[in-house]
Amino acid sequence: MPAPSPLPRYLYKILPSAPPSTLPPRLPLSDLDRKDGYIHLSTSEQVASTADKWFDTFSELWLLKIKYAVLAAGTDGDGVVQADKKAEIRWEEVGRGCFAHFYGGDLGSGNVSEVLKVEKNGTWADSLSLEW
């Protein structure tokens, strides 16, 4: 499935709890990411519907904001592009749209640009204003 056009400037990883205050070079994978073999990511337009589907009962979420270009270059969580095992983004069709999946890499201090705490006020769509 092709990537959206134009490409997003940022991708987001939704976390149900706060990551460490100082991000390590490699964050642990969620059970779902480990099971599926890739890291689930969302564009700014997908975060609210994903949060409504999977995190509806939560009153706050944490988002890892990641520059698309950094992940597209294959940058791993430690900030290094591995020549022999390049991490990559694949855009794949999932029941309700085309989502970014990060294969072969981790998220961490070397590729996450910001951590955002979001408190739910009404719906997640009401609570979120994210950069594309």
Q: Which labels suit this protein?
A:
alpha+beta; globular; 132 residues; three-stranded antiparallel beta sheet; single chain; ADP-ribosylation fold; 4 helices
Characterize the structure shown.
The chain has 132 residues and is an alpha+beta fold. It has a single domain, classed as ADP-ribosylation fold (Alpha-Beta Barrel), CATH 3.20.170.20. A hairpin with a 2-residue loop joins strand 4 (88-94) and strand 5. The model has no long low-confidence stretch (mean pLDDT 92). The strands form two sheets. It has a three-stranded antiparallel sheet. Helix content is 20%, strand content 27%. The protein has helices spanning 31-36, 44-54, 68-72, 124-127; strands at 10-15, 39-40, 60-67, 88-94, 97-103, 114-119. The relative contact order is 0.28. This is DUF952 domain-containing protein. InterPro entries: DUF952.
Lay out the secondary structure:
Elements (H helix, E strand, L loop, with lengths): L9 E6 L15 H6 L2 E2 L3 H11 L5 E8 H5 L15 E7 L2 E7 L10 E6 L4 H4 L5
Antiparallel strand pairs: 1-3, 2-5, 3-6, 4-5
InterPro entries: DUF952
Protein name: DUF952 domain-containing protein
Terminal-residue CA separation:
20 Å
Classify the secondary structure makeup into a structural class: alpha+beta
What is the gyration radius calculated from CA atoms? 14 Å
Q: Approximately how much beta-strand content do the residues carry?
A: 25-35%
* Proportion in helices: 10-25%
Order of helices and strands: EHEHEHEEEH
Protein name: DUF952 domain-containing protein
InterPro entries: DUF952
Organism: Ampelomyces quisqualis
Pfam families: DUF952 (PF06108)
